[in-house]
């Protein structure tokens, strides 16, 4: 756990000086002797207050260290904190009275403390209150630090979870596409050898794209769209060319960044959930809208339920790169999937 500012060297040197001066002035005001301060700024009593303040602060710091060493769980219970507060206050009061008594006896040469009962009580109360405030600040600092560390650990765990989801998404290989592709390839080999060669090239490009970007967190939109055209070629073999991509994305946005596989996997998602035939072809419109790439298509859902795992994976992947959410809505007979374009700053690239 990060150390409290109470242990900072600058605080340990400056705070006792400030406290000693303030307490000295307060005692003079209480005893009606403020004129002494006007006559002499640096009286021996002021030096005693400064030394005593330093001793009280350091004794409290040492007490906190010993409590933390010998009773690590003392701050976890009200009784432990009460005990530490009483010990620190008692030490400070005894220390203040002892130092002042020694000053009166050995420096000023008095043989009795009777004339100084009020001063001893005032200083004892003053340093006792100081100790109580010091200890409560220590408690507050400890719990604030513990709370911040808990929040930081929670954020680190959440970040690691998102990164893990991102890596799982990037490393995912779609086996159903591979099997469907191989089945179509077997048919093409026997009837259309030339088409089979083109099909093999496209299939290899699809999986080469997936494998080559396993370690990349982001890729430019142009490359991702190209990967989408390759997977579209494969699905058009399955659906007799009934799938069309209406690409309305302007050229100046093609350098924007997306998570690798966004376009091909969303095309696959839309195709798998839509009824496609020569009577009902599928057109997927690609547009840019307010920092999003939009996949729009006419709703013609299959009877089987939607597989939302892909969208969930995309949402988790984009959480790491953008504050904008992945949006999936259905309205007026059309479906819209909006993916935020990632803005990468120069310092991140460096």
Describe the structure.
By secondary structure, the protein is of the alpha+beta class. The chain has two domains: 5-157, no CATH class; 172-349, Heat Shock Protein 90. Helices cover 63% and strands 10% of the residues. The chain contains eleven helices and seven strands. It has helices at 9-31, 35-39, 44-70, 78-107, 117-171, 175-191, 193-212, 221-238, 262-272, 309-319, 346-349, and strands at 219-220, 243-247, 257-258, 282-289, 292-298, 327-331, 334-340. The strands form two sheets. A five-stranded mixed sheet has the order 2-4-5-7-6, with helices on one face. The chain has a two-stranded antiparallel ribbon with strand order 1-3. Strand 4 and strand 5 (292-298) form a beta hairpin. Helix 3 packs across helix 5 (117-171) and helix 5 (117-171) packs across helix 10 (309-319). The longest helix is centred in the middle third of the chain and has 55 residues, at 117-171. The protein is rod-shaped. 22% of the residues are buried.
């Amino acid at each position: 756990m990060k150390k409290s500012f109470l242990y900072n060297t600058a605080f340990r040197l400056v705070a006792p000086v400030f406290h000693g001066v303030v307490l000295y002035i307060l005692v003079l005001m209480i005893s009606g002797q403020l004129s002494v301060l006007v006559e002499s700024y640096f009286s021996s009593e002021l030096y005693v207050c400064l030394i005593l303040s330093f001793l009280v602060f350091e004794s409290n710091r040492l007490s906190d260290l010993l409590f933390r060493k010998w009773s690590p769980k003392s701050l976890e219970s009200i009784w432990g904190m009460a005990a530490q507060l009483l010990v620190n206050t008692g030490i400070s009061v005894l220390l203040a009275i002892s130092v002042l008594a020694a000053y009166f006896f050995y420096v000023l040469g008095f043989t009795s403390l009777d004339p100084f009962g009020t001063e001893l009580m005032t200083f004892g109360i003053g340093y006792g209150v100081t100790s109580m405030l010091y200890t409560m600040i220590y408690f507050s600092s400890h719990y604030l630090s513990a709370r911040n560390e808990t929040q930081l650990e929670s954020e680190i765990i959440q970040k690691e979870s998102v990164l893990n989801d991102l890596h799982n998404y990037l490393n995912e290989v779609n086996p159903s596409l591979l099997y469907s592709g191989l089945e179509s390839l077997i048919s093409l080999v026997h009837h259309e050898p030339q088409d089979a060669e083109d099909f093999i090239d496209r299939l290899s490009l699809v999986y080469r794209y997936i494998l080559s970007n396993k370690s990349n967190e982001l890729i430019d939109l142009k490359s991702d769209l190209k990967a989408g055209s390759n997977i579209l070629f494969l699905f058009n073999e399955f659906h007799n060319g009934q799938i069309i991509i209406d690409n309305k994305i302007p050229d100046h946005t093609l350098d924007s960044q997306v998570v690798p596989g966004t376009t091909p996997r969303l095309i696959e998602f839309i195709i798998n959930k839509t009824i496609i035939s020569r009577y009902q072809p599928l057109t997927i419109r690609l547009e840019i809208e307010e920092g999003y790439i939009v996949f729009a298509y006419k709703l013609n859902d299959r009877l089987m339920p939607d597989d939302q795992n892909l969208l969930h994976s995309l949402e988790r992947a984009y959480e790491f790169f953008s504050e904008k959410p992945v949006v999936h809505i259905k309205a007026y007979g059309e479906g819209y999937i909006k993916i935020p374009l990632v803005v990468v700053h120069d310092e991140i690239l460096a």
